[in-house]
Each structure stands twice: as structure tokens, then as C-alpha cells.
Automatic annotation (TrEMBL):
This is Sn-glycerol-3-phosphate ABC transporter ATP-binding protein UgpC. GO terms for molecular function: ATP binding. Belongs to the ABC transporter superfamily. It comes from Sinorhizobium numidicum. The gene is ugpC. SMART domains: AAA (SM00382). SUPFAM superfamilies: MOP-like (SSF50331), P-loop containing nucleoside triphosphate hydrolases (SSF52540).
Length: 359
């Protein structure tokens, strides 16, 4: 059993509270991704679990055993770093077997484990090379292989793909997902890349300012963000945010663009809302479509052609930011022409002044 439990974990560096009261339960065999913007505390949280940083307060358990005072080497974890951290003077095989050799595992057993890991990662033909004779992607595989040979209870990944180019990153992402399927070991993976988080995770934990904003399965977070931060962080292209004013009537509430502006959407919300209250509406680019009549009038500023889809950026009177609309790749329009934009009311998110989702 290699569950990981964090109970009210706080980690301070002097006056900086990098991690502020984080509680989480990670189940055995789960792949959990910590994601968030630079400085949100995700690496610090991972290093606390690894034992590379002490805990200021709170309790850490791995497999139900208290770990606060257990040395990093005795926690049953293996960590893969962004920098690979390979020993330059050792061959790939020596790098991968080093930790086992140090704890007195027999040469035959070390060889067996190194070959098994190399086989999983398809680097068997590289075992005699030195790290400098490898590409970035191959080095990263060796770093992962070194973690695998140790048969840890928990794998920790700290932005392992950040130094790779986009193609290789996409390929290694699939490899890591496959590795998790094959090894069925608990994995905690840190990244700032929301695509990596969405595609890899059984469960995503979104961190901001050292705290958990929301946690849950990727699609749940995407479809039901708890607040504006989560809504804006997940999803590519980014969600549109529109300032709007509530005009409650009977039943659903009209949300207008400005006091006398057009009604953008009419829908019920949870929580009290009064006429004139300001809210923010969140609308994903694929929840907007072109309509023949009705909707909002917009002026075409730019069409970005991505191949499979096109992004229309339109200026709507009364809106501060351009509205981004995701359309089929065949879409064409002249800048300056007028379009009518229909919004799928059931896909509009409503955030109150504090950023909390109310509808
Ligand atoms: P990034 O994606 O940029 O690596 P992160 O989310 O992993 O960011 P952390 O590296 O965990 O963020 O840092 C969280 C906060 O703690 C930051 O404000 C950082 O400056 C601070 N911090 C991290 N390590 C130390 C340290 N050793 N001493 C002092 N402050 C630190």
C-alpha cells in the first residue's frame, strides 16, 4: 500500500509561506498531478513529500506510516528531476543501477533490474553510452529508468519534460501514461503545463499561492471549475471572461453587457444576487458559434488558422477584451467584417465578485 496523506502541511522559508495548509489524500496506484502557475508552491510540496525539505507544520504519511522524521532515502520514493541529474562519468547502465549497488544488491540482480527497466523504456541499446552521448529525450528516459530500477512505492516527477521540445514532450507524455498503466505504482507529477495535467492525471490538484484551489478528475475540473482561477487556468484556448451586470426578473436572471447593453445570457444561479450586481461570465471559445440572427454583433479582428480549427478574435462593443471563438478549420472571414455570435447558455459559467462560481 503506497497511499500518500498530507495533513495540514505548511512549509515556510523564513517569511515566505510556500505551502499553506495543504491537506490531500492520494490513493495507492493513483496518478495525481500538481499544477499551477510559477511560484504556486507545487515543487516545494513535492520536495516536502520526497523529504528534500523539512515540514514546518502538519503531518505526512506514506502507506499509512508517519514520515515527518524519516530520511528521504528511507521513504520508499524515487524522484525524477527536470535536470535529469545523471552522473556524467557513469554509463547509462551504471547510472540506472547505482542506487541498488549502493544498498548492496547483488550484481546479477542489479543487471536484471537495469535490463528490465531499459526494456520498458526502449533504451536497451544505449546501456553502454555515457549521458553526454545521449539526446535530451534519451537522458530523460535514463532518469526515469533509474527511478524504475529502485522499485519505489511512490514515483515523484518534478517537471520532467520541461527541457524537451514540443514533439518529444507529447511523445514522453504518452510514455509516462503507459508506464503508469504498466507499473501501477502511485505517482505524483508536478507541471505548470495544463495540457500535461489534463492528459496524464487521474486527478488534478490545482495550486495557487501555496493553497489548493480545487482537486478532482480532469474533466470535472474543466466542466465544473469551482472558481475563476481554475476556469482560467484549465483549457486551451483560454476561456473568455466578460464583465456583466445582473438584471433579475422572474425565474432566470438576465446578464447584460453594461446596464443598458444586450442580454448575453439568461440563466439561474445559486446564491443571492441583486439587480445591478456585477459578475464575470466565463465562456469557453467552443461554446460560441456563428448565428444568422440574434446573438451579439462582433467585428472580425483576426482569424488564426490552426489547421483542424480556426480561432476567430472578434471585438464586441462594450467588451474590454476580444472574444475568442473556436470554429472549424475551414472558416474564413475578412478582418473588419461583421459576425453574429451565439452563446450556448448552458455552458456559461458565472463568477461572483470574489471569483467564486455561482452558476
Ligand atoms: P516553478 O514552476 O516556478 O518552479 P513552483 O510552483 O514549483 O514554481 P516553488 O518552487 O515551490 O514554486 O516555490 C514556491 C514559493 O516558495 C516561491 O515564492 C519561491 O520563491 C519560494 N521558495 C522556494 N524555495 C525556496 C527556498 N529554498 N528559499 C526561499 N524561498 C523559496
Amino acid at each position: 500500500m503506497a497511499s500518500v496523506d498530507l495533513r495540514n502541511i505548511v512549509k515556510s522559508f523564513g517569511k515566505v509561506e510556500a505551502v499553506r495548509d495543504v491537506s490531500l489524500s492520494i490513493a495507492d496506484k493513483e496518478l495525481v498531478v500538481f499544477v499551477g502557475p510559477s511560484g504556486c508552491g507545487k515543487s516545494t510540496l513535492l520536495r516536502v513529500i520526497a523529504g528534500l525539505e523539512g515540514i514546518t507544520s502538519g503531518e505526512l504519511l506514506i502507506g499509512g506510516r508517519p514520515m515527518n522524521r524519516v530520511a528521504a532515502a528511507d521513504r520508499g520514493i524515487a524522484m525524477v528531476f527536470q535536470s535529469y541529474a545523471l552522473y556524467p562519468h557513469m554509463s547509462v547502465a551504471e547510472n540506472m543501477g547505482f542506487a541498488l549497488k549502493m544498498i548492496g544488491v547483488s550484481k546479477a540482480e542489479v543487471d536484471r533490474k537495469v535490463h528490465a527497466a531499459a526494456n520498458i523504456l526502449q533504451i536497451s541499446e544505449l546501456l553502454e553510452r555515457k549521458p553526454r552521448q545521449l539526446s535530451g529525450g534519451q537522458r530523460q528516459r535514463v532518469a526515469i529508468g533509474r527511478a524504475i530500477t529502485r522499485s519505489p512505492d511512490v514515483f515523484l516527477f518534478d517537471e520532467p519534460l520541461s527541457n524537451l521540445d514540443a514533439d518529444l514532450r507529447a511523445q514522453m507524455r504518452v510514455e509516462i501514461a503507459r508506464l503508469h498503466d504498466e507499473l501501477r505504482t502511485t505517482m505524483i507529477y508536478v507541471t505548470h503545463d495544463q495540457v500535461e495535467a489534463m492528459t496524464l492525471a487521474d486527478r488534478i490538484v490545482i495550486l495557487n499561492n501555496g493553497q489548493v484551489e480545487q482537486e478532482g478528475p480532469p474533466l470535472e475540473l474543466y466542466e465544473k471549475p469551482a472558481n475563476r482561477f481554475v476556469a482560467g487556468f484549465l483549457g486551451q484556448p483560454k476561456m473568455n471572461f466578460l464583465l456583466a451586470i445582473a438584471a433579475p426578473g422572474n425565474g432566470p436572471i438576465d446578464f447584460r453587457l453594461g446596464a443598458d447593453g444586450p442580454v448575453i445570457v439568461s440563466r439561474p444561479v445559486s446564491g443571492a444576487i441583486a439587480p445591478g450586481d456585477r459578475v464575470e461570465l466565463g465562456i469557453r471559445p467552443d461554446a460560441i458559434s456563428l448565428v444568422d440572427s440574434g446573438g451579439l454583433a462582433g467585428g472580425v479582428v483576426l482569424v488564426e488558422r490552426l489547421g483542424g480549427s480556426s480561432l476567430l478574435h472578434a471585438r464586441v462593443p462594450g467588451l474590454r477584451d476580444l472574444l475568442t471563438v473556436e470554429l472549424p478549420g475551414t472558416y474564413q472571414a475578412e478582418p473588419g467584417s461583421t459576425v453574429r455570435l451565439g452563446i450556448a447558455a448552458d455552458r456559461v459559467h458565472v463568477f461572483d465578485a470574489s471569483g467564486r462560481t455561482i452558476g
